[in-house]
Amino acid sequence: MNLANYPATTAVEIKLGTTVLGSITTAADGTGTKAFTIAAGTTPGNLSITATAGTKTATTTLIVTSSPAVTLPSEDTQAGDDLKVSVEHFPADTEVTVSLGGVVLATITTDSIGVGTATVKVPRNTPAGTVDLVVTDGTKTATIQVDVAAAPAVNGPGTSTEVPSIQAGKKFELTMSGFPANSDVSLVLHSTPVLLGTVTTKDDGTVTTTVTIPASTEAGAHTIVASAGSKTASLLVQVSAADKPSPSPSTTKTPASNAPATTATSTAGDLASTGSTSVALALAMGGLLLVMAGAGTLLARRSRRSAH
User: Fold this and answer.
1) Beta bridge partners of 130
2) Is the pLDDT of residue 135 over 90?
């Protein structure tokens, strides 16, 4: 703002409407110059600026336009998501850059009334927390704060910066975070897709589960992808070959003998050899006893006859 014809070295009060913007101290020749900032939120329109020093007053009209602005569908987003950015009140037909946390995401060219829209991707590595989204054409700037949640993640054994080493056929633990609450998350092993299982997240979007890498999986680098609708996360793993099965115990065959084999056979009515010998002996003894008994009887009769 420029002043002239005011008293020398005098403080001149500057007002926009009824709002005091500040003051200008004139030089020895009664002139003065100073820049003022129109507060954001000032109602657009034709507003009076008044410069007053005692009884000396001058007035001019200032056309106030709306401040450049940026709007979002929501001020909450997640790293890795798409975000629609709308700008207005920028100069017409002008390129403006969109940055988040100092990272340039896109360029928007405004139309004939200073309006523009673009859909940008929030980088997956954006730190969780409140981040400034800034739109500027170099001279005019609009800023809005965005609450960014961490991107969906899946982690295996070890730290998040290590590539887990897993043996095919073995079980290992996976931990997921950043997924929608109470949602089903599928776990698929790539590159040839193999479903490892499906789990349901808790209220905070996290879940821990145990899966098994198929024993037939080839050794080398593989990727496990966790997905719940449009939300995905991946984990690079190094798979080692499965254990080889233990060999079956060997059986030693006994060579067949060329000697003739003897077998004992029997037919109905036959007796074992030990049984037939015993029976014959018993019969012989029985016959001998009968003979001796008969001889004894005969001798007894003869003795009685002699006595008579």
Assistant:
1) 147
2) yes
